[in-house]
Design a protein that fits this description.
By secondary structure, the protein is α/β, with parallel strands linked by helices. Helices cover 29% and strands 24% of the residues. The protein folds into 2 domains: 4-125 and 322-332, Rossmann fold; 130-317, Dihydrodipicolinate Reductase, domain 2 (2-Layer Sandwich). It is globular, with a radius of gyration of 20 Å. NADP(+) binds at residues 11-14, 39-40, 158-159, 317.
């Protein structure tokens, strides 16, 4: 099966990852448009043995396009959504612009692939932290309903883009050489430091990243009653997020059952060696990988009747947390 595809925001971190994944996964296409801002228009990109010219992203960019992979920012997604839909293409959008739109399916292919067919021209890619959490939680939830989730995230600089990644590198070098670190891409010192996720704090005291995880999980699970609370922080890791996940199930659950389920679940790799104290690490295991790594599988002894489980997970924010999830959605579409 082949199709005509466009990548909006091709020069960004996720846009470049789209290209790598298309080649790695042998994603068949008849034509490819590389779209970006006017600043990048006219530049050349070598890809799969051919040279492509970047075109300026405009309302006229989508004629003849079947799938438009968007990672150009929420304002651009909103600006060009009508043009994409009216052209007959499907927008798979990596921003938060349409995630909570009732008309736009919010999809993690390992969780709710059936929602893809319900699209009216727009499919939303969930937040990276939501994806990383739900890939391992969903197969457990299917067999034993999760009633409550308590999540703490440890989010890499990659979540704030290439400028933040470069800033972490520079700050690290500056501090080690005795220079004062400069903060531009992120509001606070990223190197050798941890701070509250750099999204707006709401009236309830939660930042936007935390509320995204709450609201998106409920939509993806189609369960408005599931109880979720989150704490999201930025840590001095270059790429790949980590999460501590506490689950309270409807019925008793033990670590052996959790391992058995997860070892047979798509997109999940279990690293849980207690004897060697070896569990998932973002830089060692998840960086550049497609799967979500799970370990520290243990009983939460504070929850009665054996209904509580703790997990530690790591996943590459740029791959499964963004580009890969979108490409998987495109792969699952009917044309």
């Amino acid at each position: 099966m082949s199709r005509n595809i466009a990548i909006a925001g091709v020069t960004g971190v996720v846009g470049q990852e789209f290209l790598r994944l298309i080649e790695e996964r042998n994603f068949k296409f008849d034509s490819l448009k590389m779209l970006a801002s006017s600043r990048s228009a006219g530049k050349k990109i070598a890809f799969m043995g051919e040279e492509y010219t970047i075109e300026e992203l405009t309302e006229n960019s989508f004629k003849g396009v079947d799938v438009a992979l968007f990672s150009a920012g929420g304002s651009q997604s909103k600006k060009f959504a009508d043009a994409v839909v009216q052209s007959g293409a499907v927008m798979i959008d990596n921003s938060s612009a349409f995630r909570m739109d009732p008309a736009a399916p919010l999809v993690v292919p390992e969780v709710n692939p059936e929602a893809i067919k319900a699209n009216k021209g727009i499919i939303a890619n969930p937040n990276c932290s939501t994806i990383i959490a739900l890939v391992p939680v969903w197969p457990l939830h299917k067999q034993n309903s999760v009633k409550r989730m308590v999540i703490s995230t440890y989010q890499a600089a990659s979540g704030a883009g290439i400028a933040a990644m470069n800033e972490l590198k520079k700050q690290s070098a500056d501090i080690l050489e005795g220079r004062e670190p400069v903060c531009e891409a992120l509001p606070y010192q990223a190197a050798f430091n941890v701070f509250c996720h750099d999204s707006k704090i709401g009236e309830n005291g939660y930042n936007e990243e935390e509320m995204k995880m709450v609201n998106e999980t409920r939509k993806i699970f189609d369960d408005s009653q599931i109880a979720i609370t989150c704490t999201c922080v930025r840590v001095p890791v270059m790429r790949a997020h980590s999460e501590s996940i506490n689950l309270e199930f409807e019925k008793p659950a033990d670590p052996a059952w959790v391992r058995e389920v997860l070892e047979d679940s798509p997109g999940v790799i279990v690293i849980d060696d207690r004897d060697k104290n070896r569990f998932p690490m973002p830089a060692i295991d998840a960086d550049g990988k497609d799967d979500i790594y799970v370990g520290r599988i243990r009983q939460d002894e504070s929850i009665p009747d054996g209904r509580g489980i703790n997990l530690w997970v790591c996943g590459d924010q740029i791959r499964k947390g963004a580009a890969l999830n979108a490409v998987q959605i495109a792969e699952a579409m009917d044309f």
